[in-house]
From TrEMBL:
Keyword Repressor: no
Species assigned in the record: Arcobacter nitrofigilis (strain ATCC 33309 / DSM 7299 / CCUG 15893 / LMG 7604 / NCTC 12251 / CI)
Protein name: Cytochrome c domain-containing protein
Cytochrome c domain mapped to chain residues: 40-134
Keyword vocabulary terms for this entry: Heme, Iron, Metal-binding
InterPro entries recorded: Cyt_c-like_dom, Cyt_c-like_dom_sf, DUF1924_SHP
GO molecular function, one term: heme binding
Tagged with keyword Lipid metabolism: no
Domain of life from the UniProt record: Bacteria
A Pfam family reported for this protein in Swiss-Prot or TrEMBL: DUF1924
Leader sequence segment: none
Amino acid sequence: MKLLILLGLILNLTYASVVDDYLNNLKIEVQKSNPNFKGFDIKRGEEIFTSKHMGKKGKEISCTSCHGIDLTKSGKNFFTGKVIEPLSPIANPKRFTEVKNIEKWLRRNFNDVYNRVGTAQEKGDVVTYILSKDK
Ligand code: HEC
């Protein structure tokens, strides 16, 4: 049990530094083309996460179609019905601990919903929104 708590703590620290770095790098990228950029925005992120679009498979979906609206709860894949573990790092300490994984899924999932990859600003906004739900 103690070991589990310790492991959780370590994962939590990893998550905080990984996601901080990730967001900082995205911010630098946005500022290259928009020097006046102030920072990522929870409201814009919420719109990205909850609004419906004609997705890749010709069905209207949003990020919530698979992840649900309560991110501390498991979701369900809209297409396959497979359970998806919660997106919230508090409910699921494995979340946001590996940039490669975050990037891979954001690329795939933006394609699912928007039929294109997300911009640096969109990715930053939506991740900021997801993390804001933990506060
Ligand atoms: C068709 C279903 C589906 C949709 C729609 C979807 N996702 Fe996902 N998402 C998944 C699956 C499956 C995974 C990977 C399995 C897992 O990690 O549990 C995943 C993983 C992720 C991760 C990985 C986080 C991590 O570090 O583990 C993020 C972030 C994410 N999704 C964000 C989004 C966003 C933002 C949208 C909307 C643009 C979205 N998802 C739409 C199914 C979906």
